[in-house]
Design goal:
CATH superfamily of the largest domain: Type I PLP-dependent aspartate aminotransferase-like (Major domain)
Distance between the termini: 56 Å
CATH architecture of the largest domain: 3-Layer(aba) Sandwich
Strand content: 15-25%
Number of domains: 2
Structural class: alpha/beta
CATH class of the largest domain: Alpha Beta
Number of strands: 14
Radius of gyration: 22 Å
Length: about 400
């Protein structure tokens, strides 16, 4: 081997060096084993703490109806799907789930994936490619950004919720143009200006993919998200979402026209080349959608809304911007000492300089839990009084 190769080998960073650099920057992460994950409590290092970190906004993950549906599917279908749906046949339970999703979204059809990340990575490159344009909100989720990059399309980014800049980018768009945004932003809890975005996409003949991951179960008369709440489901080309947050199960989905869904079946690589999720996952998701549309589901949603109102928030995602990484980590540790699990969120999940606490509320909490957290935030050292941003 050449001397040049050995020089490069000697200067190559080791994993230990990279980990040390992350630690210096306050960006090192590690897994914290937990037991008894059911809300509102979680057992962490042998200690019960109130969990304000979960995306299980409605407390569905431990609901008896979901557990029973999944258990029955385990008995009926076994533990796994064994292959891709295009290889060994597509189990009827997945079709039942997709029909139910499509009905709720007022779309012609839907397609499910293993998770939300796989949904984005399969769908966006199937919609656009080289010569096309993707226009993303700056704060769009990492899966949407990664999928846009993978597509090979020209990537353009507009400042968060800035529709004026979005229009300027639409004017210069080429060939097929896809706008990508979230309805409820996962780290800020705020809403996109959907009416304005829909108006612009129609004005310039663009397509719109709306990720409703953190809006399903929260917004809309039937809990279907922001597009339902605003009566614009038929004006959103691609309604994307997840079954693993408010719906308490797992998996991702896309709802669209029949032609687009058929195209995804033929082009979405994360669908084609992945073993289908366990049938029990689909069964739990069906039960969750049934529960969501029931009187009980409505009562659960109202309980969550009451908690949000305690924080004067529209959504159950409540950020407290701390700025520096160490400040966020310190605040999170302070709350943990007081008996509350509230994560510190840092770069690259959020932009540099905007490290924060991310508080998430659930219908599984009671009003006393929420008041206790508010007291801890108000009386913390350093001061942790909430100011939504």
């Amino acid at each position: 081997m050449s001397e040049r190769f050995f020089r490069q080998a000697r200067t190559m960073k080791t994993p230990e060096e990279e980990l040390s650099r992350l630690t210096e920057q306050g960006l090192h992460r590690s897994l914290r084993p937990v037991t008894s994950p059911d809300l509102p409590d979680v057992t962490l290092a042998g200690r019960r703490v109130i969990n304000f970190s979960s995306n299980d906004y409605l407390g569905f993950a431990q609901h008896p109806k979901l557990i029973e549906a999944a258990s029955k599917a385990l008995r009926d279908y076994g533990t796994g799907s064994t292959a891709s749906r295009l290889v060994s046949g597509s189990l009827d339970i997945f079709h039942q789930l997709e029909e139910k999703i499509a009905t709720g979204k007022k779309a012609e059809a839907a397609l499910t994936f293993a998770n939300g990340y796989a949904t984005a990575m399969g769908v966006i490159p199937a919609i656009v490619g080289k010569g096309d344009t993707v226009i993303l909100d700056k704060l769009a989720h990492a899966c949407l950004i990664d999928a846009a990059r993978l597509s090979g399309a020209t990537l353009r980014v507009f400042p968060h919720n800035d529709v004026t800049k979005l229009e300027k980018l639409l004017i210069s768009g080429k060939d097929r143009t896809l706008i990508v945004t979230e309805s409820v932003f996962s780290m800020d809890g705020d809403l996109c200006p959907l009416r304005n975005i829909v108006s612009l996409k129609e004005k310039y003949g663009a397509l719109l993919l709306l990720d409703e991951a953190h809006a399903v179960g929260i917004l809309g008369s039937n809990g279907q998200g922001l597009a339902e709440e605003l009566g614009q489901q038929d004006q959103v080309d691609f309604q994307m979402g997840t079954l693993g947050k408010a719906l308490g199960s797992a998996g991702g989905y896309i709802a669209a026209s029949r032609a687009w869904i058929d195209l995804f079946i033929n082009k979405a690589r994360s669908f084609i080349y992945s073993t289908a999720p366990p049938p029990s996952q689909a069964a739990a998701s069906i039960a969750a959608l049934d529960l969501l549309s029931s009187p009980e589901g409505s009562q659960i949603r109202q309980r969550l809304l009451a908690h949000c109102q305690q924080f004067q928030s529209t959504t159950p995602i409540i950020p407290k911007i701390m700025g520096g990484n160490e400040a966020a980590l310190s605040a999170s540790s302070t709350l943990l000492e007081k008996g509350f699990l509230v994560p510190a969120i840092r770069y690259p999940t959020v932009p540099r300089g905007t490290a924060r606490l991310r508080i998430t509320l659930s219908a599984a909490h009671d009003s006393g839990h929420v008041r206790q957290l508010q007291d801890a935030l108000s009386n913390g050292r350093p001061a942790l009084k909430i100011s939504n941003s």
